[in-house]
Amino acid sequence: MNKTLISIVGPTAIGKTALSIKLAKHFNTVIVSADSRQFYKEMHIGTAVPSTEELEAAPHHFIQHKSIEENYNVGDFERDAIAKITELHRTHNTVIMVGGSGLYVKAVTKGLDNFPEVESSIRTELNKKLETEGLKTLQEQLKLMDPIAYRTIAIDNPQRLIRALEICIGTNKPYSSFLTNPEKKRSFNTVTIGLDADRTIIYDRINQRVDIMVNDGLIEEAKRLFPYKDLNALNTVGYKELFNYFEGKWTLEFAISEIKKNTRRFAKRQLTWFRKDDTIKWFDFNTDIKNIITYLEKQV
């Protein structure tokens, strides 16, 4: 195969966007985003969408191309991204993909896993349980039924949590046991690199990023989106905490501290997910770009 997808992964706030732009310039190519939080045009500050300067530095796809009111899932993204990458490969031997949404990255590079059908009544009951007993109860249930899924999926996302639980209940097997299906054949070769750092550095970068988001207008952005707080797209770190503040449940100071804490937890889950993949070549986030390019040029 002479067509390559360079996939850049790693925890949030590690510097994936900056690296992707440098690589896009070097390989004279374009960037496909696999960050599911950056798909929505109404969400900008809280999702750390690349700046205007960054977007102008290299062509980007799948950035703010959907509305929060549209239903768009990982299956839709797999279909759309493969079609776009195939199209881009007609004019570029190499395409860059960047994002920390592990399931969305996997959908493109390896394909989605196939899950058995389960009774729809299970999901109905789980949704009722969510309403009456809250998210924490469902999280504890998954922890008992499938500790691996509990550590790796986005357990703060009710949709993902309920999906995992309904598979566990409906099949009497762990959700994670179905994450081993053979990889789908792609028309391109994939080279995946990861950025990493000591945990204290990652956490400091996250805390600093949240402070910058607040200074840049995150509270005002969340206030505009508050009327849509029940949409699935907005059930995400950075917004749901501020919604609790707007409802008078939390102080602003506590809400911001929770954004930092939940983002740190998210980064930990990202690393747990990506470290299961032994094909990823890891680099320290401070690695000289020349060393990364040298490695990649041997692979493409």
From TrEMBL:
EC nos: 2.5.1.75
Region Interaction with substrate tRNA: start-end pairs: 35-38, 159-163
Binding site for ATP: 10-17
Cofactor(s) essential for the protein: Mg(2+)
Assigned keywords, A-Z: ATP-binding, Magnesium, Nucleotide-binding, Transferase, tRNA processing
Residues annotated to bind substrate: 12-17
Site (Interaction with substrate tRNA): 101, 123
Catalytic class of the enzyme: transferase
GO molecular function, one term: tRNA dimethylallyltransferase activity
Catalytic reactions on record: adenosine(37) in tRNA + dimethylallyl diphosphate = N(6)-dimethylallyladenosine(37) in tRNA + diphosphate
Keyword Cell division listed: no
Subunit and interaction comment: Monomer.
Family: Belongs to the IPP transferase family.
Entry function: Catalyzes the transfer of a dimethylallyl group onto the adenine at position 37 in tRNAs that read codons beginning with uridine, leading to the formation of N6-(dimethylallyl)adenosine (i(6)A).
Protein name (Swiss-Prot/TrEMBL): tRNA dimethylallyltransferase
Organism field: Winogradskyella pulchriflava
